[in-house]
Amino acid sequence: MKRPAIAADKRTKAGGSPRGTEYMDWHASLWPVAGSPDRISGIELNQICDIADLAREDPDVIKLWIGEGDLPTPDFIREAAVASLAAGQTRYTYSHGVPALRQALDRYHRRHWKVDVGADRFSVTAGGVQAIMQAFQAVLSPGDEVIVPVPAWPNLVEIVRILGGKVVPVNYRTAEQGGFRLDLDDLFAAVTPRTRVIAINSPSNPTGWIMPREQMRQVLDFARSRGIWIVSDEVYAHFTYDGTIAPSFLELAAPTDRLIVTNTFSKNWCMTGWRIGWLIYPQGMSTIFDNLSQYNTTSVATFIQHAAVAALDQGDDFIKALVARSAKGRAIICSALDSLPNVRVFWPEGTFYFFFSVHGMNSAYDVARRILREASVGVAPGSAFGQGGEAYLRVCFAVDPELIQEGANRLVDFLRKVD
Amino acid sequence: MKRPAIAADKRTKAGGSPRGTEYMDWHASLWPVAGSPDRISGIELNQICDIADLAREDPDVIKLWIGEGDLPTPDFIREAAVASLAAGQTRYTYSHGVPALRQALDRYHRRHWKVDVGADRFSVTAGGVQAIMQAFQAVLSPGDEVIVPVPAWPNLVEIVRILGGKVVPVNYRTAEQGGFRLDLDDLFAAVTPRTRVIAINSPSNPTGWIMPREQMRQVLDFARSRGIWIVSDEVYAHFTYDGTIAPSFLELAAPTDRLIVTNTFSKNWCMTGWRIGWLIYPQGMSTIFDNLSQYNTTSVATFIQHAAVAALDQGDDFIKALVARSAKGRAIICSALDSLPNVRVFWPEGTFYFFFSVHGMNSAYDVARRILREASVGVAPGSAFGQGGEAYLRVCFAVDPELIQEGANRLVDFLRKVD
């Protein structure tokens, strides 16, 4: 939903000088909205939230719209938070993360990717989204261009806009058999002298695509040669279905490369409501990210950081079980819809999203609302993910297999009718 | 500490084309830091954190440097968080605050200021600092000017810089008897056609000044006539020493005025480590602030929001006791230093800070470090608060009266010697 930007013009015309009663009357009705710059007042309403708000509390709806599983946070993590609260760890702490957590993050990266980052290159943030916000604050100037393969997570795109940057979308390609892929010629052709960042999200929300290691190497080489930054959002790395962890730019990059990797506790440990994530920055930028933590949120809550240490140090088995459960959900929903003639199905390589297109669907937003109304299933419209998403719907399959089976049944019934 | 900005130039010169080995060698040593825009890499290191980091864990130091009391969060608030965690409230929630919290905030404002804001004008943020970040994101464009009475809380100033705005400082005046005051002629004279915001912090950190209601009215009238925003940071409103709550712009403004009020749970309820605050925006801007919450932090942790409801609904007596304790600390430190011939003492009208100047002191930063080393007292250097603060030191007196007495004794001993 765009808001009118009438008043910005009027204000410019009027300049900085005092004005009379007529102006004051006009002010009363239009000022507030008009008071925001166009890039802010023009932010699209988040279509996922918009549809979810229609039936957030309705128990009859099977909710597959939002990017989170249906499990509460494991007990051992909640207990660590309770213990920290009981110990009175409720006061200010280190801006970019308590030492114990930064060390645990370092161990976690050694264990899973065999990379030696060093605790001093981690910054703890209020979720993955705040990691992205700080990453772009650190490197972007107004007018800079950011290349984003699309469809993409809307938050990534809007953060760039909020900071006055320009998003340059590059469409994933699709092949009937091969699913989504990124053509690097497309990516590199989008580069201009104003390109400041290439933003990669692999495994990709919403498409489920995983960037091959060889492509990562080529992107890194290219970015090095042009002085371009890479912001790599790697939050779904564990959610793959071939038994390996997804490749990370960290495996290829030097500590001084212009690379910022963002991540979150939300997905691996069912901590979406905790708002804690992290980023990894190049050597030599610790003062910058210490400052950015201070001036964005001061820190993440002290007792949440201590709970996060428990998640990292004791949570590997939980991740394994969660991914196995997610694999069941993937098999159920993908095979169910694969049987329909009007649905194009690519089995996602990674993430816990199934992104499918329905033949003849004009408005994903309208269809998502119809599915909610007529089939009591909550799905996210592909249009929420921008250019190239209009013909798609996204469901999250990181839920109870019985629930996803019932959701699949309802979707199949609905989609049969619209055939 | 400024970082060199050499590479920004080199990058511009080299343009967008690939470069050879020589460039790559240079890159390895300079790239990361060079990769940030000057306004980011040039952010001053936070001098308060810098000194605090020297002795954060030293039990012999009396720590009066940071803006927080010495009490843990009250049990009833911690228990509410534990109950929410136990109930599994660990998943995503409404971006700009759970309805129960926004309603509790509305009741709180009715109770304390007799204002009728309405729950739909509140947005819950990751602390007061994130409230300020979102406020400026909502209204500022790069190059816009923000007028800030100084000395001021460094975070306010740095947030404006991070967003590409320009801080226009206006010095408080001082009178030997009258303490700090703001001359509105000074304030209004700083306005230019590029002025976008007047930022007021009353009660003021670090000066302890409180803006009189009549001045608020004049600033509001002036801002209305020019289409200028007011961002009013009112986090210390309860910390006054004449028995009344500090005036709020909310008491004077219409719901459509260009006013954003920011606040925090940190100070009133000893929740500095929880990272939760709020802002109040004009009618008609709820989509903008819903989006900004989504794209900055998605939300504040669900169980922290439920704890905050307990703080608001059951915490009035705690605030009263905390302010009474703070009044004792104020009397102890101010009267102790009042006896010294080389110290100029203004008893603060509000906040829990005592901001005093020492005759002949050249560098507040050096003196603060000397006081830490020689007297084992942690104080904040006035230079941390920018222009006009260089001759001052700040201590926080919201601590145990016995502790502040011991701190006062040590300070008096030290300051006698430097006389």
From TrEMBL, chains A, B:
Q: Which residues form the Aminotransferase class I/classII large domain?
A: 60-411
Write the record's keywords in alphabetical order, separated by commas. Answer: Aminotransferase, Pyridoxal phosphate, Transferase
Name of one Pfam family that matches: Aminotran_1_2
Q: Where is this region: Disordered?
A: 1-20
Q: Name one GO molecular function term.
A: transaminase activity
Entry protein name:
aspartate transaminase
* Top-level division of the source organism's lineage: Bacteria
**CDD domains linked:** AAT_like (cd00609)
Q: What is its EC number?
A: 2.6.1.1
Q: Which SUPFAM superfamilies match?
A: PLP-dependent transferases
| Protein's UniProt keywords contain Transferase | yes
Similarity comment text for this entry: Belongs to the class-I pyridoxal-phosphate-dependent aminotransferase family.
